[in-house]
Amino acid sequence: MAKPIAHVKSFDWLTLVLYLSLVAIGGLMIYAAEYKVDDSGIFHFTWSSAIGKQIMWTAISLAVFVVTYFIDSKFWSTFAYPIYFIAMVLLVLVLLVGSTIKGSTSWFSFFGFSFQPAEFGKVGAALALASYLSYHKTSLKVTKHILISCAIFFFPAMLILLQPDAGSALVFMSFFIIMFREGLSPYLYLIMFCLIGLFLGSLVIPIFSVFLILLLIANAFLITLLKDNSTPILLTFGAVLIVSLIALFTNLAFELLIVNILIFIAFGGMLLRQGKFKPLFIIIPTLLFAGGLAFSSLYMFENVLEPHQQDRINVWLRPNLSDPQGSLYNVRQSKLAIVSGGLKGKGFLNGTLTKLNYVPEQSTDFIFSTIGEEQGLLGAFGIIVIFVLLMLRITVIAERSRLPFGRIFSYGVAGILFFHFFINIGMTMGLVPVIGIPLPFISKGGTSLLAFSILIAIILRLDSQRFSL
User: Fold this and answer.
1) Which residues contact 467 (CB under 8 A, 6 or more apart)?
2) Cβ-contact 417, 326 below 8 angstroms
3) Range 244-249 contact pairs with CB under 8 angstroms and sequence separation of 24 or more
4) Nearest to residue 338, comparing CAs of 354, 322, 317, 326?
5) What is the pLDDT of residues 16-63, one digit of tens each?
6) Mean pLDDT value across residues 340-357
7) Which of 30, 59, 250, 331 shows its CA 20 to 30 Å from the CA of 370?
8) In 3-state terms, what secondary structure has residue 275?
């Protein structure tokens, strides 16, 4: 254990206030979501109830927060790999002897409490990745180092997928934010976003329209390589481009696809006559790969994914294909609860949809709907502001860190917070798929609160000791 802080002024009080504010708001919102009275109008509190357990977890988390803060900052960089190893052992053990809750073998259960090791997998991965990337010989311009960095967070993600818990596994992709900050090529991110867009596009629009868009892009690129861009060629391609865009969502997409194939062949032949072979050796394989990926994405969606997995994506991208009383029900009820709150909300403990359990998982995954109903637009916006301020403050702490370990770890925590924040609030409003990710500090769940409390405490300790380095 380290000595008490010598420089009180170095302590980031704003981050502490933001953290405690979210913990307090979370406790109140969980109380509101779980508050039920009997026929005589009396609320019976017990420590074994959801509210009682959350109070105990909050007390434990705050105590662990204080203890973690007073651990010397060098401890975390020195023991990052052993902590990561312990977290991975827990992830393996939970697959072997864990309890299955709601279809996922993700929990250790004891004395009426449940413990989810996936939350501590994030802590271990953040520490290990920070330790590896802060090593002076590590460079993200070296392929070997990139692969090792990815393996550090892909390994726990794969173990969590085996539970299966896709939501928690997806959060580990937030570590790509660290790698971008530490110098990973932005072109790799551009390629990744293009592939994601291609996958989503193949599900939203007809496959012939996807191929048509790819050919339009390829033809537009080819025409810029021609030496003599004569007016007739430009006008012809411009006309085809306009008609093709209009025809994307019509029955003419297939016919325009054939026309664009012929244009591609013509432009390719002109490039060959001009002696430009290299662009075609790049464009043609890329076009074939993109087309194959679009087709395989659609095939996998229709033939490989389980029906419940298809439903989650359909609720997000194609709600017209979803059952309003089935897979679409949760999101519809969540939106209804948020909208019903209006500007100022119905008031604390006065949420009618909340009290009547119209919104499933209203104290965990969909707790933001409880906030929207009882606190209204102003209350919901206020919580968003607090989260944004906390994430911005963490990035400020990261940038003023004197050691690479502190900077990298802080960005890792900011990334984890952002993924949880964006996906949880997004899925309650139908903006992203419903994948079961809690809202940090707010949703019911002791393990999540404990893990995030540890992450914030480590950041504050690393930051407070920056002047003593």
Assistant:
1) 7, 10
2) no
3) 244/212, 244/216, 245/216, 247/212, 248/205, 248/209, 248/212, 248/213, 249/205, 249/206, 249/209
4) 354
5) 999 999 999 999 999 888 887 766 667 777 777 888 888 999 999 999
6) 83
7) 59
8) coil
Contact 398, 411 (CB under 8 A): yes
Q: In whole angstroms, how large is the CA radius of gyration of the chain?
A: 26
What is the rounded CA–CA span in Å between residue 302 and residue 298? 6
* Contact by Cβ (8 Å): 402, 127: no
Q: Which helix (H) or strand (E) holds 106?
A: strand 104-110
Give whole-number Cα distances, 419 to 177, 422, 428, 438, in Å: 10, 5, 14, 10
Question: Closest Cα partner for 365 from 286, 461, 452, 448?
Answer: 448
Amino acid at 292: G
Distance separating alpha carbons of residues 191 and 254, to the nearest angstrom: 27
> Minimal CA–CA distance to 456: which of 121, 20, 129?
20
Q: What percent of the chain has pLDDT over 90?
A: 39
Sheet holding 104-110, edge to edge: 99-101, 104-110, 113-115
Q: How far apart are CA 456 and CA 466, in angstroms?
A: 16
Give yes or no for a contact between 62 and 441, defined as CB atoms under 8 angstroms apart.
no
Please state the rounded mean pLDDT for residues 131-152: 92
Domain ranges of the chain: 8-184+323-468, 191-304
